[in-house]
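Example 3.
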Amino acid sequence: MPINQQIVLDNRPVGDAVASNFKLISSPAPQLKDGEVLVKHHYLSLDPYMRGRMNDSKSYAAAQALGEVMIGGTVGEVVESKSAKYAVGDKVVGMGGWQEYSVASDSVVGVLRKVPDESVTQIPLSAYLGSVGMPGVTAWYGLVKICQPKAGETVCVTAASGAVGSAVGVLAKARGCRVVGIAGGKDKCDYVVNELGFDACIDYKEHTDGKALSKALKEAAPNGIDCYFENVGGWIMDTVLLRMNAFGRMAICGMIAGYNGAPMPLANPALILINRLKVEGFIVSEHMEVWPEALQELGTLVATKKLKARESIASGIASAPEAFLGLLKGKNFGKQLVKMN
Amino acid sequence: MPINQQIVLDNRPVGDAVASNFKLISSPAPQLKDGEVLVKHHYLSLDPYMRGRMNDSKSYAAAQALGEVMIGGTVGEVVESKSAKYAVGDKVVGMGGWQEYSVASDSVVGVLRKVPDESVTQIPLSAYLGSVGMPGVTAWYGLVKICQPKAGETVCVTAASGAVGSAVGVLAKARGCRVVGIAGGKDKCDYVVNELGFDACIDYKEHTDGKALSKALKEAAPNGIDCYFENVGGWIMDTVLLRMNAFGRMAICGMIAGYNGAPMPLANPALILINRLKVEGFIVSEHMEVWPEALQELGTLVATKKLKARESIASGIASAPEAFLGLLKGKNFGKQLVKMN
């Protein structure tokens, strides 16, 4: 019976989330019932949405319960099985949470999904938590279904080096668009342009106010912006909004800047009218119907090395809280994962 | 040769528009060329969009030129004709501007539109500037094409007693919705409920902050709000946003509060994400394809007295500036018109 290290939510953040909101506990992995499998996690995914769950306020999803294992996407391997559907050794993607092992029942549809071996697909297991998983499909839905970019249009995406942003850019390039990223730091911008093939990337740490960012945007997107994939909110969103073309489309996805409870107004919503914009918020898990089509395209882009997603990998479940707090502050470079020891 | 009294834009507003931004001038009506008609205006329409045109800033339409007659919709009668398409006595709708007479050429499509006599249709001439004109089609497009309300859903509209708001409510009732208006003053709210048939109307002059308005909205819309037709912006929009249901739709039309140049931020745009809202700005003149269908329904609602639109009628072209400034402050009750002497 393996020992399972777990991270639970111990108390809720007041303002910024801090490490002491979490607690590391250990317990033996439970006995399996019929139809259940024990999954040993290889990677845990850390994502901005988790910050929202830490609050007790009304949101699109239930709050994370205190004292329970933090939710989170995982990839791993079946190590014990009382299910006819899964064999020991199967690679699986699921929502195993912030822990080393999880138990899943094969009777709940969608809880666990078998994925083929990397040797067959050229897709590494960790990619199912990023480009070929929830963040990738988020990019696909917001870009393809909400923004609906046409060849020749200009697409702008914030958090451009991240798991979602990188996929947005590569998907937009594949559709013949000019793609402008916004990211924090020269390294991230270099990666976005040189490895992902964006046409330009603006470093918001170099252009630190609306005026400077606006000028940089004007140079990077001389024909204005038709599609905006919004991941951060705040002053960057305000500035991009000023550069939107008439009939522009905005997919509202992240707004990280708002998760910590700080007020984050939109300076000039009248621009939605003036430029006849369509602005739409979405949650990818509510659009399961697009997943097969999206994963097909994303998987191909990863396998053919057109989408070379970066990963920031923390080591061991105990490192998850600090890695997560770093993610909220933009310290990660690409998809933030925790690799189990 | 009749004398034509005209109101021109003399100088641009700094902050609030004031009467001295306008100037009354007189000149003889011009000689007609072949293909032209002289229209004697019966009514001039005053609309919030005109405030935007008074600014020199970039917007969806060109700024009103200084020294030229203010633009505006008009209904009137052909009094001289050098066109085979129009006869003296024809009733016509056009964009004649703030003046007593205008000249229109029959070679420019859409400049002038003949309308049938009231005796035939039961639709009074002035209605073509309101319920059966641009404001009515604005209501129709925003509600039917953007909000797409379903029977049983709750629709909220601000400036509910106005030319647009009244039509939004009646169109929504015809679609089986619960309709909640927001208007300023008991008289307006009584009219909205008793004569237009809204289910409820909230007086924002009685509920003067977000907390009070939110409480009133909760009572008037116990199931939350699915569709919001936005005419005013500011704190009222912020408050309504908090009561929107998941997958709600917002048609952004007016934002009067912003026309005078005061900053009018949106307090919590993260709600667009949290509630997966679709927010869309629009200008009705860019959707001419819907006008026939919209005018058909609106005309029927007016002729059958289901849409009993109020009118505030100022007397004589010289009264237009004060009437317009009153409109911007919500002093009008229903569609603001100027009746020519």
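The interface with chain A takes residues 59-60, 233, 237, 246, 252-255, 258, 263-270, 272-283, 286 of chain B (CB under 8 Å). The longest helix of chain B spans residues 134-147.
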